[in-house]
Amino acid sequence: xxxxxxxxxxxxxxxxxxxxxxxxxxxxxxxxxxxxxxxxxxxxxxxxxxxxxxxxxxxxxxxxxxxxxxxxxxxxxxxxxxxxxxxxxxxxxxxxxxxxxxxxxxxxxxxxxxxxxxxxxxxxxxxxxxxxxxxxxxxxxxxxxxxxxxxxxxxxxxxxxxxxxxxxxxxxxxxxxxxxxxxxxxxxxxxxxxxxxxxxxxxxxxxxxxxxxxxxxxxxxxxxxxxxxxxxxxxxxxxxxxxxxxxxxxxxxxxxxxxxxxxxxxxxxxxxxxxxxxxxxxxxxxxxxxxxxxxxxxxxxxxxxxxxxxxxxxxxxxxxxxxxxxxxxxxxxxxxxxxxxxxxxxxxxxxxxxxxxxxx
Length: 360
Fold this sequence. Notes:
Blueprint: H1 60-66, H2 70-82, H3 87-108, H4 114-129, H5 134-151, H6 159-175, H7 178-194, H8 198-214, H9 220-237, H10 241-257, H11 261-277, H12 281-298, H13 301-318, H14 321-337, H15 341-356
Helix pairs in contact: 1-2, 2-3, 3-4, 3-5, 4-5, 5-6, 5-7, 6-7, 7-8, 7-9, 8-9, 9-10, 10-11, 11-12, 11-13, 12-13, 13-14, 13-15, 14-15
C-alpha cells in the first residue's frame, strides 16, 4: 500500500560548515518517495539485548514508533511486559514506552508526558534492584534529560535536564558507550541552543556527529537528521534562514531515507518554512501538503492544524480564495481539538480576512 505521495526533490546546496552531507511553533516544527506496508504489531520480533548493549531507534517497537504507529507500539510493549520479561528487557521496554508516550503527548499537545516520567522512574527502580549496569544507567539518565528538556521548555533554564544529561555523559564515557555519549552530547547541544548559546550548541552538535560515527551501532541517517535539524535551529535563532535552508533539506531527506515517517512531517514543515522565508512559496507548498497528508494518516490534529494553516496562507497569497478558506477552516477545527488557541486565532483571522475581501 502506498501511503504517501511523492515529495519534491530539492538539490542540497554546498554547506558552509561541512560540504555536502554524507548521504512545536515554528522553532519546534521548524526528494524521495516513501512506501511502507503497515505492519501488524505481532509481526515485530526483537532480539534479546544484554544489559550492557547500546540501543538506538532501529529495532521492532522503535520502528513502529518512528513510522508513527504509536498505538501498535504501545500494544506490542504492553503485551511483552505482561509476559514478565527479565529485568534487562523490562528496562529497555519501559524506556521505549516512555518515548512512545512522549510522541503521543506531542501530537495531542499534552506535553510534558508525566506518564513517560513514570516509566523512566520504574526503569530506574528495576536497574537499582538488579544489574546496576553503567550503560543502562546512562540510558535512563538520558531519558530523564529528554523528559525534563520538554518539561522545562517554557522557562528555558533546564536545571533538571542539564543535571540529568551531565550524568548521562559521565556514565556513557565510563562505559565507553559512544552512541549514548553522542546522544547525550546532542541533548546538551539542544539545551544550549534554547538558552541562546548557538555557537556552543553547534560545537556540541558537531561533536555528537563525530561520536556517532565512531560507534558500531550508530544509525547514520538518524543522527544526520537530528544533526542537520538542530544546526538549522541555531541559525533560525540567529534569524539566518538562508543558512538554515540546506540543513533542513538534509534533515528531511535523512528522515525519509530512514522511514522516520512521524518525524518527517515535522521536517517537511520546517523545510517549507525555510523556503517561504527565502522567497520560494511555490517550492514550499508541496512540503506543507506532504505534512498534511502524513498527519491525516496518523490522525494528528496538531500537525494537521499546523500544515493546513501554512497551506491556507500560501493559497491566499496565490489568490486561491476558496481553497484557502477550506484550509483555514480545517486548521481552526483541528487546532481547537488540541486546545491550541494561538493556532485557532491565526486560522480565524485568515477566515475573517477572506470574508472581508469578498465582494458585496
